[in-house]
Amino acid sequence: MSSDYLKEITSYLREYDGDSMNIMEVCGSHTAAIAKSGIKSIISDKINLVSGPGCPVCVTPSAYVDKLISLALEEGNCIATFGDLMRVPGSEESLNIAKGRGADVEMVYSPMDVVELAKKNPDKNYIFAAVGFETTTPVYALLLDTIVSEKIKNIKLLTAVKTMPAVIEHLLAEGAPIDGFLAPGHVCVVTGSKIFTPLAEKYDIPFAVSGFSGEEILEALYGLVKIKKGGRVMNFYPKVVTEEGNTSAKSLIDKYFTPSAACWRGMGIIKGSGLKIRDEYSYLDAGSEGLNEDIKKNKACLCDQVLMGKKTPKDCPLFGKVCTPLTPQGACMVSEEGCCHTWIANYR
Ligand code: SF4
């Protein structure tokens, strides 16, 4: 981006004096990038950036965490998971706390790490905690493909995989006051930008696919604020996002997963908003069906409202007092991509 163009878009966004606009960044990586780059401090007060339900661990329901804990406490089982998920509160405790009382939990950096663990320890049953969005699903499909092709007997997955369009539709159908969406670039690398076209057209609302640098986000915001209305998808991340997406990743996902209802923390069950392992591979599923309960550890937690963009973390009475990154009361405070975690680090 040329410095002249950057100056032009920055001054447009700073001096914007039209109707107030609520722009939702759906993705937790965007929430964190917006905070780190200080974008809120250099744009007009009339452009309100609202965080949405795009942080993978934040939307994982407590019943899923409870199930992981009960599996990890069974003799011979070991849960393999990303570090963030270990701190997410279940209905009573987190995996981290359960680990302290004997649950077998191993932190990994990639889903494929579990293959090595399983080969080294053939007497253990490994269960990989597969949470996340379209971005990580291709790696879960690759893991399943490896398990099948190498006939590995001691790995299963517990899945809570989510997809973006249905949850965005849920917000729009609930009347969320959103004037435009900053669409997640890494999701669109896999799905293609056209995944948002039906929603843009149905609700006559613009989507701007964006990368994750401050400049890329500013450019996408500029696109949204300038056009204000109109059901279209604009791709401001063309170096990696195409309209069609990654067709080989999509077909690998399709081989192992099929659309399903999914439970979102604080939002309940949303039809068609998740992916489950196909019936023919159900022997590789560690019991993901029916994990729909979502019990708040702390009743005062406003995570559900925060995830829907209806409240900000500062509206929560626990924010920064009882609830901190060291003592998370809700899932939004756990991950660096969680809205409350981002706010405590940047907007307190
Ligand atoms: Fe929940 Fe903590 Fe955020 Fe409040 S500050 S909404 S308790 S995560």
Short description:
The protein is α/β, with parallel strands linked by helices and 348 residues long. Helices cover 36% and strands 20% of the residues.
Alpha-carbon Rg, integer: 20 Å
Q: How much β-strand is present in the residues?
A: 15-25%
What is the count of DSSP helices, taking H or I runs of 4+ residues?
14
Strand order of the largest sheet: 4-3-5-6-11-10
**Which CATH architecture of the largest domain is right?**
3-Layer(aba) Sandwich
Structural class: alpha/beta
Pick out the low-confidence regions. none
Q: What is the CATH level 1 assignment of the largest domain?
A: Alpha Beta
Name of the CATH homologous superfamily of the largest domain: HypD, alpha/beta domain 2
Number of structural units classed as domains: 2
